[in-house]
Amino acid sequence: MLFNSYVFLFVYLPMVLFLWYAIPDKERTRLTILTAASYVFYGYWDWRFCGLMLFSTIIDYICGLKLNSSKKQIHRRFWLILSLTTNLSLLAFFKYWAFGVGNLNSLLAASGSSTSFPIWNIILPVGISFYTFQSMSYSIDIYKDEAKPTKSFLHFAAYVSMFPQLVAGPIVRYHELYEQLRQLPKKIQYDSFLLGCQFFILGLAKKLWIADTIAKSVDPLFMNNPTPEFVTSWLAMVGYTMQIYFDFSGYSDMAVGLGLMLGFQFPQNFNSPYKSTSISDFWRRWHMSFSFWLRDYLYIAMGGNRHGKLKTLRNLMITMFLGGLWHGANWTFVVWGVYHGALLIIHNLWRTHSKRTIPKSLAIAITFIAVMVGWVFFRSPNFTTAGQLLFGLVGGYGVDANQIMTAKSFIVIVILAGFWCFAAPNTWQLPTVNKKWQAVGLAMLFVLCVLKLGEPSPFLYFQF
Amino acid sequence: MPKKETTAPNTLLKTLMTSTIVMLLITAGFNIAIDPTGEWPGQMLRPLVRTSREAKVKLLKKQNQPPETLVLGSSRVMKFEPKFISKYLKGPVFNASVNSAMTEDYWAMLKYAIDDQKAPLKHIVLGVDVEAFSNARPMDARLLATPQLVKYLHEPSWKVIQRWFKRFSQALSLPQLKLSWRSLKFWLNGYPELASRYENDGFLIYIKWESQRKNGTLDTKKLLDKNKARYVDRMKGYNEIDSKRIEYFRQFVELCQSQNIKIIAFMTPLHPELEAHIEQKNKMYKELKQKVHQHLKMYSAQKQLIYVDTRHIKAFNGIEGEFYDGAHPTVINTRKHIKYLLTKKAD
């Protein structure tokens, strides 16, 4: 079920909110309702996905308890490995099987072997990358004694499946929700509910009015365009840069908003990433819950920056390589990850060796351009398209100034979106509505969004 | 420093909710009142898209004398003249054919004529398209948008709820709002000329084509060529005659039998060039056509209907040049067709 659908807004959400607040004193019943509702939300795509999520939940719940009760380190390690293996196997099978086998077959064919393995057409369960990472963080935190396991399966199931952030994050860690699940709000907290509505409506507007409008012009530019000239190439790159930000941060805002409506506080996922002054700054502002996950569970686990320069750089590259792969089973994502790894390494070396400081606006511009070039790999279906677009960006296929006139409405939207990214405060920095006219304005924005619901518009990050 | 005035969150939340509900109701109310697509009862303005189902239902209701003969089928039988049929069959005739008719359309229209309009039917002239039994085409949205007919469809209640929900959702959509606005503008500034209209007995007049034909400017070859891709597309995914549609047809035949209504059925022929093109592009077409033919023959053998084989225009000495667009025959061909069908029936 999509947040931006009639059924979600007019049937599902009102029902869930009503049931959630209708029985304020029965905590278990409320959590059962929330969990059941989340499974309905998830099963709306395909009911078979629910079994998978339940399986992952059961395994991690058991592993969490066992990790806590085991005294010997070897036993603790066993339960941790079981949790990680289960989650990563699920991810590997559903997300990377076809990719892995396809590459293996190509390698075998290249080496002259006639052996080939069957490539099964496996459906990728929506959001599997998100909830497996969330679930894994629980086991790792318990292993590291940074979190206590829950004895209540219901608490854990509610945590894993919570519908606002289930399919596209933010990736919430258990300790962030531990207390909140124990102290459920008994009645509507008007201020946080209102803030939730504000987050949700702004997120919806970002998605439907900006990202989707841009997508209509951007999508064709990445398809069947073998000789993109200069203007078209730049429009494609800048357009997608805006599209992905408004799409994904819009979704995150909606998730945070829904959480607030239910009385939960989720972490911030975007903090004006295009205002970043360096690539490492960018990763502190873009998809924050994911980059912090990578930092804490991968980069630091590999030693972080504690074992000398060379190993630090190696750790950065491995982290970003895997971060790229996490986004999808395609070499373009891997290259995008490696590209960011390389940028982080360059930045790290620059910081160590250069005493020069560059003006803030120049730093922002350089970072922004570097990030945009990365999006070319991220968005392109293959390297041929990416190569053609990069060649077009430097004028390899000529310059056609008439394209500016042809795409003028698209350019206006992109400029407005850019203004929002660079000059306006982000959703977290905005004050809560405090005047009646502002509330009416918000209502008007919501109605404008509702009018756009009829158009098909899946979220970009659902595929990851 | 003066204290900044702020409103309490609960008041703001109430304002937000109330304004949202009011604005949504105004939007939906406006779209439902204007009803540009003719999906709600009690239309105030003429819908932008007049669907044949809605038009035929209204015309049938307006008949002074309920018909004794009903012409059913797709747009390919819309030029079957009720007046000409009256020469062979007694009593008033009404052409109730609708665009892209499937078997559920035959059923729903028959039920509407019998149950709602109390038509004392004696005959049904039924033109069956190969696509009428398609297992690839969903129920026609225009049928689902005609409340007078949709009530006769066997749909589970969840589907009915889903349909109503979809209708309400549509009333809250930007495309619908744009259409309403256009409809309002037409109402204020005058409607554009229609390409076709129905006479009171349901007979179709192609205003544009017929006037072009008179002037000798109708390019039938161009229209036929244009239809080729369209008709190949209509057959896409159709690989078996659909069990639900077989069931609708069975019920239709049985209801006619129980009411002593004679069915004179035939398969609608296409221009041979168009047919050859579909056969060439779709390997299943010939087989499916044969299956529909066999299905009708089976009922004929059981004496449940009269089936006249007119799969090819040769059967009734039809003229290749007497099609507007390769699929829709002119009145010259339909008269030949009717004559052949009804004299054959008399045999």
In a nutshell, what does this entry contain?
The complex is a heterodimer of chains A (464) and B (347). Chain A is an all-alpha fold and 464 residues long.
Descriptive overview:
The complex is a heterodimer of chains A (464) and B (347). With 464 residues, chain A is mostly helical. Chain A has 18 helices and no strands. Chain A has helices spanning 6-22, 27-43, 48-69, 73-110, 128-143, 153-161, 174-182, 190-221, 230-262, 279-285, 288-299, 309-326, 331-353, 360-379, 383-393, 402-406, 408-423, 436-451. Chain B has 347 residues and is α/β, with parallel strands linked by helices. Helices cover 51% and strands 7% of the residues of chain B. Chain B is built from 14 helices and seven strands. In chain B, the strands form two sheets. A five-stranded parallel β-sheet of chain B has the order 2-1-3-6-7, sandwiched between helices. Chain B has a two-stranded antiparallel sheet with strand order 4-5. The longest helix of chain B has 26 residues, at 9-34. The termini of chain B are far apart. The interface between A and B is medium-sized, with 28 and 25 residues.
Indicate the topology.
The complex is a heterodimer of chains A (464) and B (347).
Chain A: H1 6-22, H2 27-43, H3 48-69, H4 73-110, H5 128-143, H6 153-161, H7 174-182, H8 190-221, H9 230-262, H10 279-285, H11 288-299, H12 309-326, H13 331-353, H14 360-379, H15 383-393, H16 402-406, H17 408-423, H18 436-451
Chain B: H1 9-34, H2 52-62, E1 69-72, H3 82-85, E2 93-95, H4 103-116, E3 123-128, H5 141-144, H6 147-150, H7 157-170, H8 174-189, E4 197-198, E5 204-205, H9 207-215, H10 220-234, H11 243-258, E6 262-267, H12 272-281, H13 285-301, E7 306-308, H14 331-346
Parallel strand pairs in B: 1-2, 1-3, 3-6, 6-7
Antiparallel strand pairs in B: 4-5
Helix pairs in contact in B: 1-8, 4-11, 10-12
